[in-house]
Amino acid sequence: MSNTFDQPADRSTLYRYMGAHPVEGGVRFAVWAPNAQEVSVISDGNGWTHSRDWLTGSDSGVWSGVFAGVNPGTRYKFAIRARDGRIIEKADPFAFYSEVRPDTASIVWSLRDFEWHDESWIAQRDKTNWLDQPVSVYEVHPGSWRRPTDGRVFHNYREIARMLADYVKEVGYTHIQLMPVTEHPFDGSWGYQTTGYFAASSRFGTPHDFQYFVDHMHRNGIGVLLDWVPGHFPTDGHGLGCFDGTHLYEHEDPRKGFHPDWNTLIFNYGRREVSEFLLSSARFWCDVFHIDGLRVDAVASMLYLDYSRDSDQWVPNQYGGRENLEAIDFLRDFNTVLHQEFPGILTVAEESTAWPGVSRPVYTGGLGFTMKWDMGWMNDTLRFMQRDPVHRSWHLNDLTFRGVYAFSENFMLPLSHDEVVHGKKALLDQMPGDEWQKFANLRLLFGMQFANSGKKLQFMGAEIGQWTEWNHDAEVDWALREFETHEGVRRLICDLNRLYKSEKALYLTDHLSDGFRWIVGDDTTNCVLAFVRQTEDESEQLVVVANLTPTPRHDYRIGVPQAGYFKELINTDGEWYGGSGVGNQGGVDSTADSSHGYDQSVELQLPPLSVVVLKREPERPAAERKVSVTGVRTGGSKSPAPEPHSPGATDGSA
User: Quick one: average pLDDT of 171-200?
Assistant: First the structure.
């Protein structure tokens, strides 16, 4: 593919000019330091002497110069003399490569000579509207997905690419989302305290290694999303803070420029050079590294001036309000630039409030994101699932309330790393009951996630039912796959992904109210929910039924939209997944008995703590087979069901 650095100039491409670029005769350096008295380059090439390789200033505040004897691989920093005479040594804000922490120097690197092989992927992506496509995301921390066994701390990007691509294809996710690989000094920040907005972390290899990683994913049909953090940056001395001796990138007033939650600094979005720095960073990852989209961290903290602040700790905007007007303009610019320049990419907001129009077009007053994480669904659903089933009937509104707002945004349903850290426990261990019920509840949770409207995101380790919280200093507990209970969860995720990708009713109308219809939403006696997922023209319809208690429900009748044979596509209680195998013998015929406002209905055997998905077929197959559309045996082999499956199971009815 043609090299991005040789393309005509576009907006927000500062990375083509700033930083360090190999040219004929040496390397050209450029840095923005408008309040500096003088700037020089200190490097391996000059013995780290600050009074040798001087840069020339300009009216724009950019200092630049070309020096011979400097090559790719040379370590360097900028030595900046501030107005008070101090000499400050700073890493290059536009560096493409950095030393491995704890060292902090930038490294000269050329990104021109990597040969890409993902033309087919990019061409197809450019034509894709992901809102009407299946999007199932596997969130990965590259430093702790797998760890080497040869004494090294981390695998190289290339090693991770080969292992991860094979695994993601096997389990069936459509995309991966990398927790921030932008360069960061502290492993324990998980990448969320960024110092290198144009550098892939050197922990895992060179920039070319990361280009290989993305290219390999694309050649295997897997999209790559990157977690990106424009909301704040750390105070490390080599970083952006007080860059030229003044508050250049951040606000001077700590009420606007200091983040109390994370002890970090907040970008001055109203300063054009700063917003262009960030916009160029966003564009850079899509342009130079072919990233398929950015998940923007902590958007709520950007939108509100009083975020996590007491009344005397923030400054109102010019109209006296709490909205950060400069950040709003920046986010709209961010989405406008990326969607114009890279059709088919995704921008996803982690936004935890009811801010209107996060995923609505900028031209209608929205922020312009493709999607928004549904933090309400995540919190309400986990709160419900953590309850003892005996109490769940009183709290069905935790699951049904989403209907009030479910289509106000283009939502993604996240079960992310944030839900399995800081003492919250792993998802499996958050579930109530004995061991059997914990696994059944986890399968129930995943079944509801995939059956509900919205794109999907799961954090690594959840798919095997990991018992322990995520630890960034260790790998996923892959040894658990030796146990059938854990491997059963993984089989379910494989089948849910395949079902999701094969049934248009589950993805085509994820963002449309026409794609969802309640059948049962208020059965507090049995603690059962049922709904229809359908295409907009109703040509394809699925019936989803969830039994939220450990007690099987025999001969449970629900109304269905049309007459026909309803095949059991998936049953989270299947023996193949570690369940009890209660089910409906592969499917049921509807009868002309009215129920729930429909003329037709079906009578079901509802397994304990389960989600069952049924699809109408014109007529019963000649030979009923206990095989799902995903090619895996479902749990429809036993009917009627036994009473509560495991010792200690209790009836969850009111």
Answer: 96
pLDDT on residue 340: 95
Listing DSSP states for 296-313 in one string gives: ETTHHHHHBTTTT--TTS
Look up residue 488 and give its amino acid: G
Q: What is the pLDDT of residue 637?
A: 35
Which tokens belong to 615?
């699809």
Which has the closest alpha carbon to 90: 80, 100, 82?
80
Inter-CA distances, 165 with 223, 369, 518, Å: 10, 27, 37
Looking at the DSSP bridge assignments, the partners of residue 138 are 176, 458
- Assigned superfamily of 4-107: Immunoglobulins (2.60.40.10)
The pLDDT value given to residue 11: 78
Average pLDDT over residues 62-72: 93
Query: H helices within 308-362, ranges in order?
Result: 325-341
pLDDT at 9 over 70: no
Please name the residue that has the structure tokens 């996240």: 414
Across the chain, mean pLDDT equals 93
- Beta-carbon count within 10 A of 152 CB: 10
**How far apart are the C-alpha atoms of 258 and 277, rounded to whole Å?**
19
Q: 98, 109, 75, 91: which is closest to 5 by C-alpha?
A: 109
CATH topology of 4-107 equal to that of 375-398+420-453+487-492+512-654? yes
What pLDDT sits at residue 614?
98
Largest separation between any pair of C-alpha atoms in the chain: 91
Residue 166 structure tokens: 């094979």
Catalytic residue among 92, 209, 244, 350: 350
Contacts with 7 (C-beta within 8 Å, 6 or more apart), sequence order? none
Any alpha helices (H) in 483-606, and if so which ranges?
484-502, 504-507
Cα separation, 156 vs 180, in Å, equals 16
d(CA 568, CA 566): 7
The beta strands (E) that lie in 464-577 are given as 516-523, 528-534, 541-547, 553-560, 565-571
Q: Is the model's pLDDT at 639 over the cut of 70?
A: no
Question: In the chain, what are the domain boundaries?
Answer: 4-107, 375-398+420-453+487-492+512-654
Record the pTM.
0.93
CB–CB of 36/81 below 8 Å?
yes
- 285 close to 226: Cβ distance less than 8 angstroms: yes
The C-alpha atoms of residue 401 and residue 618 are separated, in whole angstroms, by 34
Report strand pairing: 293-296 vs 223-228: parallel
- Distance from chain centroid for Cα 400: 24
Per the structure block, which two tokens stand in for 539?
């040509």
In the predicted structure, residue 133 carries a pLDDT above the cut 60: yes
CATH of 375-398+420-453+487-492+512-654 given 3.90.780.10, 3.40.50.150, 2.60.40.1180, 3.40.50.1110: 2.60.40.1180
At residue 529, φ and ψ (nearest 5 deg) are -120, 145
Contacts of 29 (CB under 8 A, 6+ apart): 19, 20, 41, 55, 64, 65, 66, 67, 76, 78
Q: Is there a catalytic annotation at residue 350?
A: yes
List the catalytic residue out of 92, 183, 292, 297.
297
Single-letter amino acid code for the residue at 578: G
CA contacts within 13 A on the Cβ side of 304:
15
pLDDT at 3 over 90: no
Residue 99 catalytic? no
